[in-house]
Specification:
With 167 residues, this protein is α/β, with parallel strands linked by helices. It has six helices and five strands; from the N terminus they run βββαβαααβαα. α1 runs parallel beside α4.
């Protein structure tokens, strides 16, 4: 557990650690997510045949939020993705939504999916250094890379549609 998680967790608090990986950018990719709640942990992962690292970083958060069984939770998210953390904390996402993602902002499908899920909870995001001394982040990296290298990869349909049009 992280230092933060040892402080009197409540039934309404969930810790989420996430990571995404891509073998090539674009290329096969995967995500890994660990949800921690009252001493219980659940690991999630999936691999995709053609995607990007940023999409997988964002999918790791989305998958974690989709796995929550009730609304109104305090979700503390740890990610090593500056793209994800800064887009949310620094208001980039709000601007992208307000302008209809003009200017070629990428991953609109996933950002809108995230935004819908985020409204259901109170989220706090923290950036952690990747490939460092955070055991949960390192485990998420293992899950993500194993998913990217695994058999029976899923199709990231929206990305593949866009990529085939504009490689």
């Amino acid at each position: 557990m992280t230092q933060h998680s040892r402080k009197n967790p409540s039934a309404d608090q969930v810790l989420m650690h996430t990571d995404g990986a891509s073998r090539g950018n674009p290329g096969p990719g995967g995500y890994g997510t660990i949800l921690s709640w009252l001493g219980h942990e659940k690991e999630l992962s999936a691999g995709y045949r053609l995607t990007t690292n940023n999409r997988m970083e964002l999918m790791a958060v989305i998958a974690g939020l989709e796995a929550l069984r009730r609304d109104g939770l305090q979700v503390i998210i740890y990610s090593d993705s500056q793209y994800v953390v800064r887009a949310i904390r620094e208001g980039w996402l709000k601007n992208w939504i307000a302008t209809g993602f003009k200017g070629g902002k990428k991953n609109q499908d996933l950002w809108l999916r995230y935004e819908d899920l985020a409204r259901r909870h109170q989220l706090t995001l923290h950036w952690v250094k990747g490939h460092a001394d955070n055991p949960q982040n390192n485990r998420c990296d293992e899950l993500a890379t194993a998913a990217a290298d695994g058999p029976d990869l899923l199709m990231d349909a929206e990305f593949e549609k866009i990529y085939r049009t504009n490689p």
